[in-house]
Write a structure and sequence with these properties.
Elements: H1 3-10, H2 13-16, E1 30-31, H3 43-54, H4 67-77, E2 84-88, H5 90-100, E3 108-113, H6 117-125, E4 130-134, H7 143-153, E5 155-161, H8 173-182, E6 186-190, H9 202-207, E7 211-216, E8 228-232, H10 234-241, H11 251-262, H12 264-287, E9 291-292, E10 299-303, H13 309-318, E11 321-322, E12 324-325, E13 336-340, H14 344-359
Parallel strand pairs: 1-11, 3-4, 3-5, 5-6, 6-7
Antiparallel strand pairs: 2-8, 7-8, 9-10, 10-13, 12-13
Helix pairs in contact: 4-11, 5-6
Length: 360
């Protein structure tokens, strides 16, 4: 057989008809498309980290459970002693681990619509049925729609981001509690943006037997380390640890995360700066006539009004600024742009470029 024939025979059609996850080239651009922390560490900390990394034993496998990270992480995040953690190569690996556990069971996965695309992408990848749950006119939980959807789908797993991506808002706590208390599915509250909101659902993982919490360090300045976590009762964690790949957190990432936790005040200071800049950016965009959705994350969604989101997106690229064009990704996101909250000088460059594009 030819290579083409072998690929046709051995690679499932759903894979052949699909496409790899695309990450646009941001070389030389102001990068405001991926919800990253815009700030680097002070040079003194970078020098100290470089020394620590140089001492890593790259010839040895890493600690499979990353024990050196566990205690300081629990202390920094104030994780209750009754809860345990499992670590992943970013939140994506945690999502994949949870969904892959359902392969062959016939059980489904649910998530809000619109929401983080990887919930559906990974469900499709593992051929696990996926059901989108509708949001109301305020992008909050549509209780009737969710109840109907959950009854029909009978899911084993429900992902609920708090706050939601890409809309940036928090779901009503009362409505969320109603969903949690009405289902036997495992509820995964995704707190990827916990550093930028006062909301905290760790106590729900103690209160409810069917709730676990997912977090990441990507948004607070460690996107390059790819470090995520699932927090829940030890009874849940021990089961998921059975299907976690061994040595999934490499020694360089473990060292970088441990070092960052020793200097957590820097992460907190930078997150506070991003919160302040989110308010300033929202105000300045609103003054220019744009409608900006309220956000509890490190990004804002902007309705482009009389302007074309796609045209502004392309125009901003010509100004060497990369944002996320949501237009076309979902009917509810038509003619919108998602803007990561950058440093003040990055926001200023963004606003100046928008002014030039509109006036031109």
């Amino acid at each position: 057989m030819t290579r083409e024939e072998l690929i046709q025979a051995l690679i499932p059609e759903r894979v052949r008809q699909g496409a790899a996850y695309q990450v646009p080239d941001a070389t030389g651009m102001i990068k405001l498309d991926a919800m990253e922390n815009p700030y680097t560490w002070p040079q003194s900390l970078r020098d100290e980290l470089a020394t620590r990394l140089a001492d890593c034993e790259l010839n040895r496998y890493p600690d499979p459970h990353a024990e050196a990270i566990r205690t300081p992480l629990k202390q920094w995040m104030e994780i209750p002693e009754t809860l345990d953690l499992i670590f992943g190569n970013g939140s994506d690996e945690i999502i994949a681990l949870l969904i892959s556990n359902l392969i062959g069971t016939g059980r489904s996965v649910c998530a809000p619509d619109p929401s983080f695309v990887m919930f559906q992408v990974l469900a499709n990848q593992y051929t696990v049925p996926f059901r989108a749950l509708p949001l109301d006119s305020d992008f909050d939980i549509d209780i009737d729609g969710w109840m109907d959807g959950l009854m029909e789908a009978d899911p084993a797993l429900i992902f609920i981001p708090q706050p939601n991506n890409p809309t940036g808002n928090l779901f009503s706590k009362d409505r969320l509690a109603q969903i949690v208390e009405s289902t036997q599915a495992l509820i995964v509250i995704d707190e990827a943006y916990t550093a930028f909101t006062d909301a905290d659902y760790l106590d729900w993982a103690v209160r409810y037997p069917n709730v676990v919490v997912m977090r990441t360090l990507s948004k607070v300045g460690l996107a390059g380390s790819r470090f995520g976590m699932l927090i829940g009762h030890p009874d849940w964690i021990v089961e998921f640890d059975k299907i976690r790949l061994p040595y999934n957190i490499n020694v360089l990432s473990q060292t970088a995360v441990q070092f960052a936790l020793e200097h957590a005040s820097t992460l907190e200071e930078q997150s506070g700066m991003i919160r302040q800049e989110r308010m300033r950016l929202t105000t300045l965009l609103t003054e220019r006539g744009y409608t900006v959705w309220g956000s509890e994350a490190n990004f804002v969604v902007m309705e482009c009004g009389d302007q074309s989101a796609r045209a502004l997106f392309e125009g901003l690229k010509q100004h060497r600024i990369l944002v996320k064009c949501l237009d076309g990704s979902h009917p509810r996101l038509a003619n919108t742009l998602r803007l990561t909250v950058g440093a003040p000088e990055e926001s200023d460059a963004l606003l100046a470029a928008l002014d030039q594009l509109v006036s031109g």
